[in-house]
């Protein structure tokens, strides 16, 4: 008798990934590879992350409907739109991308996606993330710093969480309502480096 395979998850993340066509967030030359479970180059040394990795990160992030989410390293805008599906129209998503050409392309992709509560803009020079009064309830980081950036940890709201690959290890940074931070590890992954201006 063959080994049974686990059923694919049927959850909000799976539904969001089914609803958002990855091809629309890839250069023309890569669109034929959209269904492949691997990272794909989008130019300027950046990639559209592997779908299985994105799904794992989104499940770790545990985005509630109506949340405000910061998407660092948004690239083509795919994760920004996925996050918008998870927050629903009552939420808001801000994608940041440090490469100006990618930010412009990603912003156009997000604008075409029919999720007006999400937007993508160029990352500010000399600023990591986007400081916000009260912090962000959820922060997704799709590039890997060598060490956990304190500037991003400081932007996690009380009761919030951040998912970030640091030195190849996926971390969940959770801040409790009293402000204490707990960091847990969730496997090994490869990402493009997080570059700070």
UniProtKB/TrEMBL annotation:
Alphabetically sorted, this entry's keywords are:
Cytoplasm, Methyltransferase, S-adenosyl-L-methionine, Transferase
CDD domains named among the record's database cross-references: AdoMet_MTases (cd02440)
Q: Which GO terms describe its cellular component?
A: cytoplasm
The main enzyme category here is: transferase
Give the subcellular location. Answer: Cytoplasm
Predominant cellular place of this UniProt entry's protein: cytoplasm
Would the keyword DNA-binding turn up in this protein's UniProt record? Answer: no
InterPro entries listed in its UniProt record: PCMT, SAM-dependent_MTases_sf
Q: Name one GO biological process term.
A: methylation
Q: What is its EC number?
A: 2.1.1.77
Q: What GO terms are given for molecular function?
A: protein-L-isoaspartate (D-aspartate) O-methyltransferase activity
Q: Which Pfam families match?
A: PCMT (PF01135)
Family according to the record? Belongs to the methyltransferase superfamily. L-isoaspartyl/D-aspartyl protein methyltransferase family.
Name of this protein: Protein-L-isoaspartate O-methyltransferase
The organism of origin for this protein: Isoptericola dokdonensis DS-3
Which gene holds the coding sequence for this protein? pcm
């Amino acid at each position: 008798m063959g080994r049974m395979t686990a059923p694919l998850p049927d959850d909000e993340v799976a539904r969001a990934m089914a609803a958002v066509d990855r091809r629309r967030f890839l250069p023309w030359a890569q669109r034929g590879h959209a269904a492949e479970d691997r990272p794909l180059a989008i130019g300027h040394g950046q990639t559209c992350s592997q779908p299985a990795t994105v799904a794992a990160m989104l499940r770790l992030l545990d985005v509630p409907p109506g949340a405000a989410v910061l998407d660092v390293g948004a690239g083509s805008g795919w994760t920004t739109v996925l996050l918008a599906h998870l927050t629903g129209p009552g939420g808001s998503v801000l994608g940041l991308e440090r490469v100006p050409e990618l930010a412009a392309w990603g912003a156009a992709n997000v604008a075409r996606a029919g999720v007006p509560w999400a937007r993508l803009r160029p990352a500010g020079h000399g600023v990591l993330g986007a400081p916000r009064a009260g912090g962000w309830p959820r922060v997704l980081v799709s590039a890997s710093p060598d060490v956990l950036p304190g500037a991003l940890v400081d932007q996690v709201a009380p009761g919030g969480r951040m998912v970030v690959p640091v030195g190849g290890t996926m971390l969940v940074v959770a801040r409790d309502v009293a402000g204490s931070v707990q960091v847990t590890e969730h496997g090994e992954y490869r990402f493009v480096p997080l570059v700070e201006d």
